[in-house]
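Whether sequence alone determines local backbone shape is best considered at the level of individual chains. We regard such an encoding as a compact summary of how the chain folds. The sequence in question and its structure tokens are set out directly beneath this paragraph.
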Amino acid sequence: MCSRFALYSDPSKLAHRFSAEAAPSLIPQFNVSPTQTILLVREENDRRRFAQARWGLVPRWAKEKDIGYPAINARAETVANKAIFRDAYRRRRCLIPADGFYAWQAVPDSKAKQPWFIVLRSRLPMALAGLWEQWRSPKGELMKSCAIIVAAANELMRPIQNQMPVILAAEHWNDWLGLATHDAKFLQIFLKSYPDDDMSAWPVSTKVNNPQKDSEECIEAVK
């Protein structure tokens, strides 16, 4: 799964990277956690635009915002058919910018887990495959929410954990965001693990385990 990531690139770099209109002013975040408001990229009127949404998808048909669990991840193999994600998968896909994400590795003979930080070798912001929804409360208030799609881990990730977020190559962004693309089988082409030789990973401090810790120390390598 993907339960934490970081986004610290400045807005102008993000706008250039995603060929989108200016990104909103952002505070660098080194420990983005579920239920926080995060940045995403959508296609509107054939243009890429930034938006913000709560991390943890709430389906349109939900009676309450709290559906009993935070739907932060959608599994690639079931996203097309699972009721909570099915409609968004066909009609409301997005890119979720991240400079890197965290994964936790089991430690032999211990209940503790070692966190790792994973980035692209280029150090460019990555585009995580996402879904978004708009939910209306009984009082008429609107709330956007989103989820990150995860797939089987690649060779780099497999010793750490068996899943990783789907990272979309730039040449696939238009197809993924295209509003006319509703074919679930076609979309499945993109839901695979990213090439491991284009990624880097290093162990980091367990400080990242605490959602209240949000500083550059979270991504610094430890022995």
Summary: The first strand starts at residue 5 and ends at 7. The chain has four helices and twelve strands.
